[in-house]
Each structure stands twice: as structure tokens, then as C-alpha cells.
# Entry
Amino acid sequence: MAQPPQAEARATKGCSPAFALFSGLAKNAVCLLLRYTVPAMQFDLITIFPEFFAGPLDYGIVRRAREARLMEVKVHDLRGFTHDRHRTVDDRPFGGGEGMVLKPEPLFEAVESITGTSAAADSRTAVVLLSASGKLFRQETARRFAALDRIILLCGRYEGVDERVAEHLATDELSIGDFVLSGGELAAALVVDAVTRLIPGALGNKDSSINESFSAVEQFAEASAPPTSHQSPVTSHKSPVTSHLLLDFPHYTRPAEFRGWPVPDMLLSGNHEQIRRWRLEKALEKTRRNRPDLLASTPPIKA
# Structure
């Protein structure tokens, strides 16, 4: 079976014009040789637990792909992008509530330091916020990512991540399922593995990534998906009025204004009943946007 166009482009990245003279096994061998000097894919993992990734990246296909320089992984300690004595990355949520929320400043600074730009302006780069409130990570998403040059994965912790990260920094918000994790590290490792095995040359047989589960659809509709939301360890919650699932509501923490993006006035009002209604409304909006299937065939939710 022939490789799809984006896979062929990925396989030939960095190859010289003379590459066109080769065919078949010779073409694959020449390009694989060139990959030892031109890494094809860059993964950047931003986390407060960098030691977590010492294990998952040292085995199997991911390890072999790294050794063959088909991809490269860099792990960044989020606390390295703080400027206070305590290396603070979290703060209390505006509007009250349990838990702590990851602050926007370290995450923005981390991504901007990695990319060298004010945001992920490069269309060949994805900034992915692993979020229980995100769209489901599927095989077609992995295929889309495999055609990129760089993927930056933001691993959240605590109660969630300041919503301004989702709105103004991330290009994608992804969930790996309807369950609760303590943080985004496991999800990030899953994404790295799923994408790596789709890079041409990572598997011994290129058809191995075609003739398997979730491979029936060659064209996918996520290429122009809009930016979405935040990483929250809270996968979902049930409405107090109905029994179906909703995604988590947006979280915000200090500063009250960041780069001209203010925290919603409602969260600063001190009116707990209005805050509760606002949070339910926003949870509904996010569920309709990212997981409409959770609301299908169910009665309307009342605040």
C-alpha cells in the first residue's frame, strides 16, 4: 500500500535532490541514512516532574526511533521558567473552590523560550494541552501530528491550568479518555508513542501502521480544528440536575490580568451562587464545543 502524501513528505524531509534518482528499498535506505543528521520530529515535554519520562521514553519503538534520529525528545522542567525564590507554578483559583491552578506565566515563558517566538506561530508546530476537558485523542489526530515538525506537550497538574493558556497559547486541547489522571505526564507519553510509530521508518514494516485498528479512514477532518482548552486533572463531572457527564469549567488564577487578558469579572464578584451558575454555563459551553457526544439525546441542563 502506498504511503499517504504527508507520510511521503515526512519520509523525504532533509533528503537531497538526488534522492529522486532512487526507488524502493534504495530510497528508504538513503533517506534513513540522512536521518542520522536531520532529526525528523521534535517533541518538547513541559512538566513539573521531568524525571517521570526517564522510563517511558527508553523502551521499544520510541527508544529505537530516538536512536535512529527519526525523532528527538526534550523534557523541560516548568519550574525552570519561574522567577521567584520558591519557584512557584501554581496559585489559588479566583472565585474560590478546591485545589490549586497552574499559573499562565511559566507556561507562556516555557513555550516562547522553546519556540523563540511570542507564540506557536509556526504552522508546523503544535502546542498541545493535555486536558480531561479536551477533544478525544484519536488515531486521525496522531496522523495529523505525525506530519508536523514539532509537538510541544503541556503537562498539567493540580486542579487545572489557567484558561488563558488554553485560549491564547495552545493550538490543541486533548483528552485521552473519560477518566481522571493525577496529571498530564501519562497522557503526554501516550501521545509521543502514538505519533512516533506513524513516522516513516519507526516501524520495521511501513504497512504496520496502516493495517491496524483505527486505520480505515485515510482522510481526516481535524486538520483545521480550532484552538481549545486547558489541562485539568478533573476529567468530568455530573450535573446536579441531570445524570449525564459534563466537562470541567474553566479555571483562572493570579494575576487577575495577564497580557491584557483579564479574569472574567464574575469570578471576582464574590457572589457564590452566580459563580456556580457561571461555571455550569461554561462547562456546558465547553462540553458542546469539545465533546458534544456527552450531551447527545439528553434533556437540557438547568443552572
